[in-house]
Design a protein that fits this description.
single chain; 158 residues; alpha+beta; Arc Repressor Mutant, subunit A; Alpha-Beta Plaits; 2 domains; four-stranded antiparallel sheet; 6 helices; 19% strand; elongated
Length: 158
């Protein structure tokens, strides 16, 4: 699907202001409401807009620890990767997971109330026999930069 400048503008506005009204969105991208709504619907139907959400300040809800974990699994057969990945889907503290190339197999972002709860999570993962062979822990001491998605124009396919 090819996107034009108006589509990009719609996406850019929605990235920072997801609760904007359709009328205001149309005004911002210099369209009347009906064509703007049609473009928005097309972007949603194509899967370019995956959903709408709120950014919640977890620290306002209580103490949290953010941990990045490198994970290496014991065996590198397709079934072993699938077993590990399926197990992670049921662990709510694991909020992000990427399969990566290089010296490790996965990089996980984990949010727990504290380091003790993180260690309990790791102990449970090791007991569950999901194939975790080795892991390294990196505790976040402060956020430096966190943006939900990068500027869109630089990543557009020609």
């Amino acid at each position: 699907m090819r996107l034009d400048d108006r589509d990009l503008k719609i996406l850019s506005v929605l990235q920072t202001e997801g609760r904007i009204t359709k009328t205001e969105l149309a005004a911002r991208v210099n369209l009347s409401p009906t064509p703007c709504w049609e473009r928005l619907k097309r972007l949603e139907d194509a899967g370019i807009i995956e959903g709408y959400s709120a950014r919640v300040s977890l620290t306002m809800l209580g103490p949290i620890s953010i941990i990045f974990m490198e994970a290496e699994i014991a065996s590198h057969q397709a079934k072993d990767f699938a077993r590990f990945e399926d197990a992670l889907k049921d662990i709510p503290e694991i909020v992000e997971c990427w399969a990566v190339g290089g010296g490790i197999d996965y990089l996980l972002k984990i949010v727990c109330t504290d380091i003790d709860s993180y260690q309990c999570l790791i102990d449970d993962m090791l007991k569950a026999d999901i194939g975790l062979k080795r892991y390294s822990t990196y505790v976040v001491t402060k956020p430096v930069k966190c943006v939900p998605t990068p500027p869109l124009a630089a990543y557009m396919k020609s």
